[in-house]
Each structure stands twice: as C-alpha cells, then as structure tokens.
Design goal:
Number of helices: 2
Helix content: 10-25%
Number of strands: 8
Order of helices and strands: EEHEEEEEHE
CATH class: Alpha Beta
Distance between the termini: 69 Å
Shape: globular
CATH superfamily: Hotdog Thioesterase
CATH architecture: Roll
CATH topology: Thiol Ester Dehydrase, Chain A
Strand content: 35-45%
Largest sheet: 8 strands, mixed
Number of domains: 1
C-alpha cells in the first residue's frame, strides 16, 4: 500500500458511569457498583475485610465526579484521611456484585464526613457500613484549611436537609 494511507475505523469512547443518583436507601442519594474480584478474597473465599476500603474510596470518587468536585480547585490543599470506622454485617464472596451507597453526612470547618453502606445486589443483603472523615490540609503548612464555600455549596445542594453543616469560620 505504498503511497496510500490505510483507513482505520474511528473508535469513540463513551464516558462510563460507575455510579448514579438513587433514592433506594435514604438518606443515601448516590451509589456505585463494584464486583468482588478473586484477589479481594481470603483463604475462606470471602472478601478480606481491608478490601472494603477501596470499594468505599471508589464510590466516593464516583460521587465527587457526579458532583463535579473530583477536580475541584483546592489551591495547594488536599483532603487526607483522619478517621475510618467500618462495621461488618455479612460476608461477600468472589464475583458478588455490590452496590456501595455513599453520602456526605457532615461538613465541618476543615473536614468532610462521609457515610457508606455496601449491599450485595443479588439479595439486597447489607455487607457493611462505614464512616470516614477527611480533613482538608494545606500541604505546605501541613495544617487544616477551611473547606471552600463553593465545595460546601455544591454538596449542600445535592444532599439537602440530610447534610449537617458546621458554621464556616
């Protein structure tokens, strides 16, 4: 094919939404799907307890993407994990499809507290719940930084009356 350019089909990638708004489990208004992989399981064939944390993180990322906050301008600040508490209710197994519900429960002066609930889709069994608090930290000073009003307002608009807002100062 010298002198001729081969025509290649154009592949258009569509955005993939791994999460979606929902009203199935109030007060949660958003959920994301995940499937249990073989590497997520322990010798007994059930999800290793530590693997739920990445499931929660993935759901939180999709939630923030939905709110348009995934790439929020936080200047030289980032959210860092301050606390994480998980309560295990039942055992998920390899190939189970899980729906992880996520919501912002509270926004403090410099912190954001999220709640999670993971359910097996097949029978709607609660696997575990969690609460995590992230603090916005100025990376140069290594000190807490107030959550910006724009960020606070976007979350408040989505969560409505279910969100506890501390007075920003």
């Amino acid at each position: 094919m010298e002198g001729k350019s081969a025509s290649r089909p154009t592949v258009t990638m569509r955005p993939v939404n791994l999460g979606q708004p929902t009203d199935r489990k109030p007060p949660f208004k958003y959920s994301a799907l995940t499937r249990v992989g073989f590497s997520d399981t322990d010798a007994q064939g059930i999800v290793y307890y530590g693997r739920y944390l990445p499931y929660f993180d993935d759901a939180r990322v999709e939630y923030l993407r939905h709110l348009g906050l995934l790439d929020a301008d936080l200047a030289a600040c980032e959210f860092v994990m301050r606390a994480s508490q998980v309560i295990y209710e039942s055992s998920a197994r390899f190939d189970d499809l899980l729906e992880v519900f996520v919501r912002t429960r509270r926004i403090g002066r410099s912190s954001v507290t999220n709640e999670y609930a993971a359910y097996r889709v097949e029978d709607d069994t609660l696997m575990c719940t969690a609460e995590q608090t992230n603090v916005l930290v100025d990376l140069a000073e290594r000190r807490p930084h107030p959550v910006p009003d724009d960020y606070r307002n976007v979350v408040a608009s989505f969560e409505g009356a279910d969100l506890e807002l501390a007075v920003a100062s």
